[in-house]
Amino acid sequence: MPARFSQQNQRVRPNSNEDKVVARAKEHFEKTLIQISGDIAGSVAALEHPTKNDALNYGEIFLRDNVPVMIYLLTQKRYDIVKKFLTVSLDLQSTTYQTRGVFPTSFVEEKGKLIADYGQRSIGRITSADASLWWPILCWLYVRKSGDQSFGTSQQVQRGVQLLLDLVLHPTFEGNPVLFVPDCSFMIDRPMDVWGAPLEVEVLLHASLKSCIQLMELSRKHQKSRLLDQRLVLTRQWVHDLRQFLLKHYWVTSKTMQVLRRRPTEQYGEDQHQNEFNVQPQVVPSWLQDWLENRGGYLIGNIRTGRPDFRFYSLGNSLACMFGVLTAPQQRALFRLVLHNREHLMAQMPMRICHPPMDIEEWQNKTGSDPKNWPWSYHNGGHWPSLLWFFGASILLHEKRYPKADVLLMGQMRALIEECYWSQLNQLPRQKWAEYFDGPTGTWVGQQSRTYQTWTIVGFLLMHHLLRAEPDDVLMLDLEEEF
Length: 483
Description:
Distance between the termini: 48 Å
Number of helices: 17
EC number: 3.2.1.26
Family: Belongs to the glycosyl hydrolase 100 family.
InterPro entries: 6-hairpin_glycosidase_sf, 6hp_glycosidase-like_sf, Glyco_hydro_100
Radius of gyration: 22 Å
Shape: globular
Number of strands: 11
Pfam families: Glyco_hydro_100 (PF12899)
Strand order of the largest sheet: 6-7-8-9
Number of domains: 1
Strand content: 5-15%
CATH topology: Glycosyltransferase
GO molecular function: beta-fructofuranosidase activity; endo-alpha-N-acetylgalactosaminidase activity
Helix content: 40-55%
CATH class: Mainly Alpha
């Protein structure tokens, strides 16, 4: 672990050129938008991407990268682009036997023909799970924000929802209500020992199923269907069971860790359920005690038989707040944890994607000596400015939901994200809106980082919009809200 540095060193002086920086960021964003069949359908992954090597795909429309793009466009009421993106993605939903129901990782138009990638062109040839899970969420946000109920109830959308539900709710050898995925199948797209039931995928599954329920309920208002009623009952039960599973097995605090370390092992039989995954006390990492402090809490990265992943993943925990997986007190416990560990998670470029990074033999064995994922870089403890808006939106949404809860803590959190916002305002234009940053404090631009990265630009614009322009727009992300 690096030596801690004082919070005073993190204070950022406000930039008097805020309006100019925001205006320039908007100009960059407009340049990222590209057309499909004559209409704008989304953003390329990065403005500056090599064009000589046709195999590189930063000029394609990635579903994952376009999540903040579409949410930002919804705040700007540019509904036609969002609808086009959703429609093209839906048209490309796989109907082949092995991948039936899967949405493409990315797509691009070449010589008038749509070309989609379901993993067959990616490094490692892994199909992205998060692309498929994000689609219903974006679809429901669009339908509710735009009021376009006819799109939500259309046969095409409802069929797409059912295909996705068939994919994720089918019987398996696994009895737990989680979605099992291989390594590299979501934003962590390099080998990082995240196979199994990684937090981000399970939280996205929870939000995706909730969005599917909302879309099916919308259809049910217009047309009664016994089959639809049965699917709604099944999906609601799955959402409930999944959330209970995550809160039971993923949520840890100092108190729960004391219980976990003293639980019996080698239990057999249905009545012996104190240690269902046979977790040995020796696997609890030494850094966890100081990390949790007394009042902090977070969702661990993964739960596997005898091999829980205690690493902190910023996106999964932020989404768990945003989408209501965590209770209100648990969300505040997470905020306290981030505040306590701000030197690690925020540092010079907010925020770190996971903590702590793997090093030495662990890095060699679990990443395959991946040169892009060396310690403190890329997904192995690197800093991604695109993650700040997810966490910032979680704080702002919590303030809207619970305006009188722990005013002192929430004041500290508001000050934290303000400082992080100013830090990005000062640094990102000078660093050419880089994709990620390296080092324990996130000071250096990532060794293989693309510049003018779209979700870096649009993440900053979203943070500005929610802090300065229209704070109430954060309520759009509350999946419990209906028409």
